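User: I'll paste a sequence; please echo it back and then give the predicted structure.

Assistant: Echoing your sequence first, then the prediction.
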Amino acid sequence: MDTSYPREDYLPAPSHKRDPSPAALVPPPPRDHLVWSIFNTIYMNFCCLGFVALAFSVKARDRKVSGDVEAARRFSSKARCYNVLATAGSVVLPLLLAALVITGVIHLSKLAQESVGFFTYQFSPSDEEDN
């Protein structure tokens, strides 16, 4: 069973002179972002965006293997967008949540210090009340 796929990193053979032939003008095949999608699906599956990216990556790889380069390029672009969204959502949202918790704790500690000062002022006996 042959499970080999075309390599993603397409490097044309170096030539010392410019070759205007049509074979030299062929763009490299699109990337399918499959590894990034698998990583996002397993570790950073924010709102199931990693799974959606994995689906588009598999579609891009299938289209690339079948020879439909334009459809592979469209699916690859969608997979990249969903991978970026999944990664950003999984990294930015916990950082934002941590920042909100830290600022909330700081605000509550200042509020507690001010309220302690207020209650000690209100309920402490003064010299005028003792007489």
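The two ends are 101 Å apart (CA to CA). The longest helix spans residues 69-123.
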